[in-house]
Every structure is written in C-alpha cells, then in structure tokens.
Specification:
434 Repressor (Amino-terminal Domain); mainly alpha
C-alpha cells in the first residue's frame, strides 16, 4: 500500500477531514492534500512523525511496513465521541479524576437500574461535583496570599451607619 492510500485510509477510519488533520498536525493544508493525492510522494520525516503521533501509530505502520491494529478499535469510539474525548484531554488531571469517578458512579447506577428495571438511580445527579475546587497546590497558594489591608475601608467609629435602619420597640 502506498503512503497516499495509507493516509486516506487512516484519516477516514478516524473520521477526520483533510483540513482537520492539517490543523491538528501543523502540516500545511496544501502540503497534506498533495500527500493524499500522490502528487507529493516525499513525505518529510517531520511530517511523518507528526502524523504517526497524531494517529497513535508507528511511522513503520504509515509507511506500510508493519501491520498495526488500532488500539482504540475495541472501544467502539464513534466520530460523535471524539469532541468529548478531545475536551477531556484538555482538562487538568484533577478534573479528569473527578470525571472518572462520576462516570464510575453513573455506571454503577445504570447497573442497579438494569437489575431493578426501574428508573435510573439519580444519586449521582444530587452529588455536587467540586468543579471549582482547585488542586491542593493552588489552594495553598491562595491561602498564603497576602491581603492588602491598606485598601480596606475602616468601619465608621460611631453608629451613624445604622441611621436608616428602622428601630423596633421592645
């Protein structure tokens, strides 16, 4: 199999357009379409490495020297799943851990639902996820931050701030 056929096959198997591959690998679009059309057969080593990294395969595989099954093929990932996976990959590790734990709880709730043939156990929906909680290192940095006390206003010394508050008879 020629490199152009391999590039077309692997791109289509992964559900990408030529433009997406070009953007995500940093290979100029005009160069990439020439690779796929066969107009340019001399794929640079740099471009070959970028493509192999992008598709999570070896350069030998792209060159047709070694058969390599897609390690994600058994996961049944569809084109619709890709945006979720790409978004997940951009999260910091502590958010990924929160998502993994939430998915595990949802899977457990779904299994209980299957066993009881009832409505999905929504305990996970009622458990707040700490999205805004920064990792420990950031929390320590926030806690140790110095506060500029000079910019804080002093409260009035007298009770004039209570002038407009209605008084109750006791």
């Amino acid at each position: 199999m020629e490199i152009k056929e391999m590039l077309i096959q692997i791109r289509e198997q992964n559900g990408y357009t030529k433009k997406e591959v070009s953007e995500k690998t940093g290979i100029p679009y005009t160069t990439y379409i020439k690779y796929e059309s066969g107009e340019r057969k001399d794929v640079s080593m740099q471009a070959l490495c970028k493509l192999a990294d992008f598709y999570h395969v070896t350069t030998d595989y792209l060159l047709g020297r070694k058969e390599l099954p897609n390690p994600l093929a058994g996961l049944k990932i569809t084109v619709n799943d890709k945006p979720f996976i790409e978004t997940y990959q951009q999260f910091p590790d502590y958010v990924k851990q929160i998502l993994i734990e939430a998915m595990q709880k949802l899977a457990e709730a779904a299994q209980r639902d299957d066993a009881t043939e009832g409505e999905l156990d929504t305990e996970i929906a009622c458990t707040p996820l700490p999205w805004a909680i920064p990792p420990v290192e950031e929390s320590k940095a926030i806690a140790s931050a110095e506060v500029d006390t000079h910019s804080l206003e002093e409260p009035p010394a007298d009770e004039s701030m209570f002038e407009n508050v209605p008084k109750k008879d006791v």
